[in-house]
Design brief:
Blueprint: H1 2-10, H2 14-27, H3 29-32, H4 41-57, E1 63-67, E2 73-77, E3 80-86, E4 93-97, E5 103-106, H5 110-128
Helix pairs in contact: 1-2, 2-4, 4-5
Length: 131
Amino acid sequence: MLFSVFSKKYRAKDEQSFINMSIYKRVLGDIEKSKYCSISEEEMQFIYQLILKLFRCGETKSIRLTRMSNKAISVTYNTYPIGKVRLQGRKTWMQILIDLYEYETLEGNLNDYIDGIDHWILYIKKHLNAT
């Protein structure tokens, strides 16, 4: 049901249709089954932008999202953490890893978090694709 709502709302170009049909459904598998909460509209928009940006870089094969008990979404790439985002609740935030032991926390609105995806992609390219 969620997939059909998403694909109707965001379908526009061939690239976006491909993302809707193949990658989006795979990435959302764990989150849709979460016992903690359902997916919000903001999370759907954020995840869509995440997948779109990763698709353009050719990095979508190893991305995985996991719902945490505090309603945040943990994002991993090839089993390595790249950050977290919390878009539900009174206080929203996004964690951006700088290196293995350091991170920044971004607080703002959905557009700020979507812009923060670029930092995750840089982290993947700098630290995870070099190995």
